[in-house]
Structure formats: C-alpha cells, structure tokens
From TrEMBL:
PROSITE patterns: RIESKE (PS51296)
SUPFAM superfamilies documented for this protein: ISP domain
Coiled-coil ranges per UniProt: none
InterPro entries named in the record: Rieske-like_NirD, Rieske_2Fe-2S, Rieske_2Fe-2S_sf
The protein, known as: Nitrite reductase small subunit NirD
The UniProt record lists the keyword Iron: yes
Record-annotated membrane-spanning stretches: none
Biological processes annotated in GO: nitrate assimilation
Domain of life: Bacteria
The keyword Zinc is annotated on this UniProt entry: no
Native source species: Ectobacillus ponti
Amino acid sequence: MTARKVQLMKVEELPVGAGREVEADGVSIAVFRLPNGKVYALRNGSPYRNSPLVEGIVSGEYVYCSLYNWKISLATGEVQKPDDGRVQTYPIEIQDGYVYITL
C-alpha cells in the first residue's frame, strides 16, 4: 500500500495539552497538541488491553494511559520501563493551518 497524506482538522481545533480522537481508514487515532506547538498522532490504544490513549494525561512529550498509568512517548510510541510495548505513531505535517497525517 502506498503512503498517503490525509487532512484531519485545523490546528486551532486541537485542544492544547489534551488528545482528540479521529478516525482514518477505519483506525482510531489519538492526536495531541502540546503547549510548545508540536503535534503528535498515535494509534488510540495502549499496548496493555488497548485502553484509549486520547483520555490520558499529557505531561511533557508523554501521555499516561488513563486506565493503567503506562507512560508512553508521543514522539516514538515507546512505553517507559519497567512496562514494555510500543504504540503505532504516524507522521504529522502542518500546512496552511491544517493538520495532515501520513497513513
């Protein structure tokens, strides 16, 4: 399958310091905008029992799983030790005030 860029929303529609759920190609994706302006996208499910990351607490460049408190890097999707796992991340591009994701 060829990678393609999909427009999600205007940047201003993303809450700062929290997640927003979007669906693209039938996949639930959590999109986060940080106070420093960076935007990240991850599959909306933690590696442990698939709990929704969009409901997690954002701290720095990490999101804490709302059900199990796993600390997950927004940049890499890596779960911080001693827990183990990884969440699918998606490249983000901001263009003309809109957020695009590459699938």
